[in-house]
Amino acid sequence: MKNKIIQVIGNGDPGGGTTAVLTLATMLRDAGHEPVVVSQRGSYLLEQAGGLGIAVHGLDFSSRGGAIANCAALAAFIRRQAPAVVHAHGNRAGLPVMLALRLLGRGARPRFVYTVHGFHFLSKKPVAFHLARLAERFCIGRADWTNFVSQGDAQIAREHRLADISKTRVIHNAVLASELPALPPQRTPGNIAFIGRLMHQKNPLILADIVAALGPRAPCVHVIGGGELEPELQRKVSSMGLGSHFVFHGQQPRPAALSIAAGCSLLLLPSRWEGHPITVIEAMHMGLPVIASDISGTREIVRDGESGYLLAAEDVSGYAAAIARVLADPVHARRLGEAGRVIAQKEFSPQRMLEANLDAYRLAA
Q1: Would you say 150 and 119 are in contact if contact means Cβ atoms under 8 Å apart?
Q2: Domain of 9: which CATH number?
Q3: Residue 220's domain spans which residues?
């Protein structure tokens, strides 16, 4: 049965959440449903989805206040579309969707599914912590069904009493392998890829310390992404005399970012927290060993010693030792990469993600 399903995400910039929504919308379309993507007006996501022939609608999610002020417009749009399901991704979308659906009234309300792409309130200061946790509780409590992208997020929800566990499930992220770039015949030995927004969560300032710990023969780090910490990282790199070991690419469209990463020897992701990082799955599909922080979302993707290495988030010497080991032994690096490719294909398939979401839409009825 064909269903119209609205997918809403506040931030339409290149990133994991955007990729997840675009992948899900594409799979829904190919399965005969009618997806509609709602996101930041003029965003990368809307451009990409529109280019694939998926219906799109832009609103202003640039601030929480602006997003909430758009509730009446969002409610009117939902009323006109008359979807079977509205699926909100992340709290910036969840709050306005929840309020918009309340404006519609119970009789006209479609099913509301909410996906948590990582809990960010844990890192906030006390007042912001309580407000952000309350916002998550509102969204999860008002949703007909809630998905978590990792077991770690589900555990956080249980510990903070945010969810009725009988109305939740874990659905891991996935990517379409057909969207990944063709791998170069030969990778440049020693290059490292870092992909992500340069913000506190991603821990980018540690990159300079890791390169310094590797010594004069340190590899070149390709920093793919922009953000508020980019100037500070550039200053730190310069002050430590490491300029020749870094290439700053800035924020890139997903195909360009992946193309740069495909030519590197490994992916480095020293994040302080993650939901279920799609960048890691993409790297594994491309046969890249992954060296990452040992946190809940990443721990559910990377198998330590089998497809990469997991270290404590601030363990500079640990990252340096793991990088040195991978770069010094091409046979070992190839073995890690091939193991990662097998895991990604088997455990993080788009078809499995689609079927699990369709099941969640039915359970939300």
Answers
A1: no
A2: 3.40.50.2000
A3: 177-347
CA separation for the pair 222, 196 (Å, rounded):
11
Q: Strands 4-9 and 34-40, how do they pair?
A: parallel
User: What pLDDT, in 10s, does the model give residues 192-218?
Assistant: 999 999 999 999 999 999 999 999 889
- Structure tokens that stand for 267 in this block: 């992916």
Q: Give residue 160's identity as a one-letter amino acid code.
A: H
Closest CA to 285 of 258, 324, 311: 258
Dihedral of alpha carbons 352, 353, 356, 362, sign: negative
Query: Of 345, 268, 347, 360, nearest to 308 (Cα)?
Result: 268
Alpha carbon 135 to its chain centroid, in Å, reads: 20
Tens digits of residue pLDDT in 253-273: 999 999 999 999 999 999 999
Same domain assignment for residues 329 and 272: yes
Q: Residues 89, 163: one domain?
A: yes
Same domain, yes or no: 149 and 289: no
Distance (Å, whole) CA 158 – CA 261: 36
